[in-house]
Amino acid sequence: MRLLQGDRRANVSLLETHKKMNVSEVNNLRVENKDLRSRFATLKIQDGRGEMGTEAEVDGMKKAVIGKVSECGGWSHAQLKLRLELATS
Asked: Left, alpha or beta for 22 (phi > 0: left; psi -120 to 50: alpha)?
């Protein structure tokens, strides 16, 4: 029984560590996503004035923002999954 309790405690500790790392990663992705969105907005404004000249850079920024949003969603899902595992153990 003590071995099971020790394993459970180790598992909970490991899940807590992963949860903290995921929260940090999600926060970093949110900051990066915010930066990409602001750069994208700036590019759209410049393009509206005719200062930019090409839409390829805007399309690249759109793809980067969409990629970061989906990556952030993946991390959020992983964090939720770890929380549920932690709650059930």
From this structure: alpha
